[in-house]
Amino acid sequence: DAEITQSPRHKITETGRQVTLACHQTWNHNNMFWYRQDLGHGLRLIHYSYGVQDTNKGEVSDGYSVSRSNTEDLPLTLESAASSQTSVYFCASSGGAGGAYEQYFGPGTRLTVT
Amino acid sequence: AQSVAQPEDQVNVAEGNPLTVKCTYSVSGNPYLFWYVQYPNRGLQFLLKYITGDNLVKGSYGFEAEFNKSQTSFHLKKPSALVSDSALYFCAVRDKGYSTLTFGKGTMLLVSP
């Protein structure tokens, strides 16, 4: 069955370190998204991609970057981790164009920055 | 701009009773509307969506939602709640002129035995 996976599931890192969270999907979807989930804020969009070599900034992109070199993967990099980036991170993907398609979510990565 | 509001942080209902989780939205054009559910320590799961057509949309696990354009609402409903329905529910909207979804802050549904 097609799926979307994230690794690691849990990560503890120190302030100032670079961290990369992996996202891999086997749906063959063109569209991929990164969100963070924080109490009181719901889900907020960090970055998204509508295809290989395409990346776009979301609502809370400062301090994060992504790259899309193939259809299956959209890694999220925290360039210099800050305590404010302690959160649960979700990757999602969707097929089709035009926005009518639902997104499929990964299981999440819980990141703690100390 | 597009936005979505879930006015209740928590909804409590007894098992067997009907449940409603409220969602209102704001868009400049015609909306695409979605409901997702999140169980503890899991990712979001898609429940149902309104794109066009019939205002009453049926989805997974017996849930349904009614699109009301005049009230700009898309409330989630179920005729008879189960304890296993206890979870965090998110409403999301996309204006047809926008490229991404905007999520509400979520409503925790607690169904008591």
Question: What does this molecule look like?
Answer:
The complex is a heterodimer of chains A (about 110) and B (about 110). With about 110 residues, chain A is mainly β. Helices cover about 0% and strands about 50% of the residues of chain A. In chain B, strands 2, 5, 6, 10, 11 and 12 form a six-stranded mixed beta sheet that branches. In chain B, strand 5 and strand 6 form a beta hairpin. Chain B is globular and about 45 Å long.
Question: Could you list some keywords that capture this structure?
Answer:
heterodimer; A: 114 residues; mainly beta; seven-stranded mixed β-sheet; four-stranded antiparallel β-sheet; 11 strands; B: 113 residues; six-stranded mixed β-sheet; 0% helix; 53% strand
How are the elements arranged and paired?
The complex is a heterodimer of chains A (114) and B (113).
Chain A: E1 4-7, E2 10-13, E3 19-25, E4 31-38, E5 42-51, E6 54-57, E7 64-66, E8 76-78, E9 87-94, E10 104-105, E11 109-113
Parallel strand pairs in A: 2-11
Antiparallel strand pairs in A: 1-3, 3-8, 4-5, 4-9, 5-6, 7-8, 9-10, 9-11
Chain B: E1 3-5, E2 10-14, E3 19-21, E4 24-26, E5 31-38, E6 44-50, E7 56-58, E8 64-68, E9 73-78, E10 87-95, E11 102-103, E12 107-112
Separation, N- and C-terminal Cα atoms of chain B: 41 Å
| Count of discrete alpha- or pi-helical segments spanning 4 or more residues of chain A | 0
Helix content of chain A: under 10%
Biggest sheet character of chain B: 6 strands, mixed
Order of secondary-structure elements of chain B: EEEEEEEEEEEE
Summing up helix and strand content along with how strands pair, one would put the structural category of chain A as mainly beta
Rounded to the nearest angstrom, the distance between the terminal CA atoms of chain A is 37 Å
The H-and-E topology of chain A, N to C, reads as: EEEEEEEEEEE
What is the tally of helical segments of chain B?
0
Beta-strand proportion of chain B: over 45%
What's the number of extended β-strand segments of chain B? 12
* Helix amount of chain B: under 10%
Shape of chain A: globular
Structural class by secondary-structure content of chain B: mainly beta
Mean pLDDT of chain B: 94
pLDDT < 50 runs, ≥5 residues of chain A: none
Instruction: Report the count of strand segments of chain A.
Output: 11
Cα Rg of chain A: 13 Å
- Largest interface: pair, residues per side: A-B, 25 and 22 residues
